[in-house]
Amino acid sequence: MFIIRQEQEKDIQTITEVNNAAFEGEGEAKLVEATRASANFVPELSLVAVTDDVIGHILFSKIEIETNKGRVPTLGLAPMAVRPDFQSKGIGSALVREGLRMCRELGYEHVVVLGHPAFYPRFGFEPASKKGIEPPFPVADEAFMVLEIKPGSLNGISGVVKYPPAFDVV
Ligand SMILES: CC(C)(COP(=O)(O)OP(=O)(O)OC[C@H]1O[C@@H](n2cnc3c(N)ncnc32)[C@H](O)[C@@H]1OP(=O)(O)O)[C@@H](O)C(=O)NCCC(=O)NCCS
Q1: What are the pLDDT digits (tens) for 29-73?
Q2: Is 119 touching ligand 1 by the criterion CB < 6 Å?
Q3: Pocket flag, ligand 1, residue 118 (CB < 6 Å)
Q4: Domain coordinates of the chain in residue numbers?
Q5: Residues of 110-129 as b/e, b for ≥16 C-beta within 10 angstroms?
Q6: What span is annotated as the signal peptide, if there is one (predicted)?
Q7: Mean pLDDT of the chain
Q8: What CATH class is the domain 3-164?
Q9: pLDDT level of residue 151 (50, 70, 90 thresholds)
């Protein structure tokens, strides 16, 4: 059994360790640390899955879509990680669902993710290209996805996603 809650100061070291265990390099852990130290951080949207210890983490942070009518604020889901010995037990899915519920509660209308195309569509994500949203770098079309938390909220919005400097480490 596990619970999901907002990260606390005491979790920070373990969040780094979970990211380093789940990913090959240290880039994702550095992304979490750089985002936490930036104005793009939303404390309520850094969530941990906890048993006796932190076994999973998900982060949503403020990013923007550059459109020909100006910049539109949105959220980026990145990164998310579950400790390898706890993967494929539903923890990642629970983190996404609780994260999206919190995003909605805070009034955010859409989310962008670059990730596994076999994983995120089950939560409603679809290729961003279908909505006229483009990545700022070359990437497989089906891996760059968006979700309208509020249905129709991306209607009339098209452009290129801009990631803040914290993302330079990944
Ligand atoms: C991706 C990840 C967060 C999912 O967490 P989880 O607790 O294992 O997820 P769940 O148990 O809820 O769901 C498992 C699903 O994740 C999918 N998944 C996990 N790793 C995957 C991968 N590398 N590629 C594609 N799908 C993957 C599986 O297809 C599985 O789907 P299934 O239920 O149809 O078999 C976790 O596997 C992880 O930390 N992976 C390494 C880091 C990573 O890739 N992070 C995501 C970057 S987009």
Answers
A1: 999 999 999 999 999 999 999 999 999 999 999 999 999 999 999
A2: yes
A3: yes
A4: 3-164
A5: bbbbbeeeeebeebebebbe
A6: none
A7: 98
A8: alpha beta
A9: very high
